[in-house]
Amino acid sequence: MELQDRIQPLRQQLQACLEEGASFSVGYREQTPLAKTVRTCRQLLKQEVSLWTFVHHEGVEPTNNAAERSLRPAVIARKLSFGSRSQQGSQFVARLLTVTSSLKVQQRPILDFLTDACRAHRYHLAPPSLLPPAES
């Protein structure tokens, strides 16, 4: 409860800043830095409750450091390979990186999953799930 009490003034200040930023009038398709900031403030206000999940749920980290670290290899690979040359290629890479990252976190074998996915596609079976297996 102490953390909630200490965070409350910060939460109120942030909400006031976001509301001020969101209050500016911008055109529907306007692409100025101001318009982008206004839209960001509006989106953050819609998600404001989620920003403070770590305060109310023990074990939830207040940062996205783990996500940033998991994306780092993908960013480096993209820079070294100059990215993809098509939308389909970009989607394929994004999906494959999602699969491999998720499986690594779950300590599941990547090759086995990809083999099962290819087999399921070829024989019109249900694809394997990326969700962690249920613990018994």
Distance between the termini: 33 Å
Strand percent estimate: under 5%
Class derived from helix and strand content: mainly alpha
Give the tally of β-strands. 0
Record the SSE blueprint.
Elements: H1 2-22, H2 33-46, H3 48-51, H4 53-56, H5 65-81, H6 87-105, H7 110-122
Helix pairs in contact: 1-2
Question: What do you see in this structure?
Answer:
The protein has 136 residues and is an all-alpha fold. The protein folds into two domains: 55 residues; 58 residues, no CATH class. The protein has seven helices and no strands. The radius of gyration is 21 Å and the shape is extended. The relative contact order is 0.06. The model has no long low-confidence stretch (mean pLDDT 89).
Key phrases:
136 residues, mainly alpha, 2 domains, extended
Provide a quick synopsis of the model.
The protein is mainly alpha-helical and 136 residues long. 68% of the residues lie in helices and 0% in strands.
